[in-house]
Please model this.
Amino acid sequence: MVTPVPGGERWPLGYRIVGQRFFRTPDEFQEGLQSMMDQHMLESPAPDLPIRFRRDLQYKAGDGYFNLRSRNMEHRVLDDVVPMSVGNLIACGNCTASELLMRVKTDGTSVLAVADLLDQLYALGLIEEDIDVRGDWQSSEGASRIKEV
Model:
């Protein structure tokens, strides 16, 4: 199983291999594929791993928002769901998703809003997924708070 990544020194071909299985039958193929999907295709950021923006993105803080820019895309993200900047916490990269939620906790509503923001950033592929567990790099009403600019 491969996943696209921004091409660069670490991944010059623009993809990385996240898993492989061998199979002899269609059932083994389906089981192997489902196993890799369960392991590698999370719906939300892993709660116990550092949460960071992808390393190819440039982070720039604004007043109540932040921008993430890559070679050919820019995202403007509203960052006003809690008094502190969620973008700055992610850009620092020194806490897990669970720790980030604990830091911004002011009430139950704000925690849900921040969790939703993290899920949106993750779904858009803006959160780094290629993180080694040692900490080294490896590679409102449903309205989106993120827009491409």
Observations:
- The beta strands are 2-4, 15-17, 58-61, 65-69, 74-78, 146-148.
